[in-house]
Structure formats: structure tokens, C-alpha cells
Amino acid sequence: MKTVVNSSLVYVEKDGKYLMLHRVKKQNDLNKDKWLGVGGKFEFGESPEQCALREACEETGLTLESIRYRGIVTFVYGDITEYMHLFTSDVFSGELKDCDEGTLEWIDKSLVKNLPVWEGDKLFFELLEREDVPFFSLKLVYEGDKLVHSETKIY
């Protein structure tokens, strides 16, 4: 069965670092052992922004005071197409809490690409760091863990 999913993904920034989630706690996790930002699937009626704010708070305990919509990633994996609405945030309040999906850790932005991440994530990390890229659309097609096709459109 072919499935379409909408999700939001947030990269919280502080002191040249991203808050990364090492996905090690959930069973049957497509992202098992990978490092990601925080986020998840839309609940019924949610906007991308509402999903990003809710998921960030649920997973980290942080309240994001400001978010920036950076792009949309079309992630194609087998019979799944996921539209990931990508945000960054550098204004937040609260204290980090333990996450039931994995371990949260502040990672220097220059080291993130060296972690076990999806191959296509390295493409959008480069786009996030470019000041001349206000918004982008990135399509990533995978066969298993291997990126077999990508397309980028900058707006």
C-alpha cells in the first residue's frame, strides 16, 4: 500500500550547534541509530508550524519562541512518500528533558555530517547554512538506505 505522510522537522540552534536526536530507543524505527532533528507527523488539522512547535516541545521540553520555515523535503522510500516541512529555531525557552525516542545532544554544525545521518540530510544541511537560500524544495529518493536520486529547487 502506498502511503503519503506529512511531518515537520526542526533543527534547534545554539552557539553554532544543532540539537540532534540519536534515535536509539524505539523498536521498528525507520530512523533507528540515525541522528536527526526533532519532529514528527502531523496530527489532524495541524499546520506545519503547529506540528513543529508541538513536536519540539514534546520531544525536548523546549518551547520554541520563533521558528523559520526553511524548506520542504520530499522523502521517497519504497511505498512511502513523506513531505517533511523543515524549520530552524534559535529562540527558545525551557530546559531539556529526556526524550523517549532517543538521546538529545548539542552537536557542532561542522560535525553533523560525520554522524550516521540519511545521505540526503547532508544536502539540506548545506542548504540550511547558505544565506542565499531563503527557501528550498529537495526531493530525495531512496532504495533502502541508499540515496539514488535527488533534485533541488531554490526559491
In brief, what are we looking at here?
The protein has 155 residues and is mainly beta. 14% of the residues lie in helices and 49% in strands.
Task: Provide structural commentary.
With 155 residues, the chain is mainly beta. It has one domain (3-154): Alpha-Beta Complex (Nucleoside Triphosphate Pyrophosphohydrolase). The chain is built from two helices and nine strands; from the N terminus they run E-E-E-E-H-E-E-E-H-E-E. The protein has helices spanning 48-60, 121-129; strands at 3-14, 17-22, 35-36, 38-41, 63-77, 80-93, 103-108, 136-143, 146-154. A hairpin with a 2-residue loop joins strand 5 (63-77) and strand 6 (80-93). The longest helix is centred in the middle third of the chain and has 13 residues, at 48-60. The model has no long low-confidence stretch (mean pLDDT 94).
From the coordinates shown, what is the CATH architecture? Alpha-Beta Complex
Give the integer mean of the pLDDT values: 94
Beta-strand residue percentage: over 45%
Name the structural class: mainly beta
- Total helices: the number is 2
The outline comes out as: globular
Largest sheet: 9 strands, mixed
Give a count of the beta strands, DSSP E runs of length 2 or more. Answer: 9
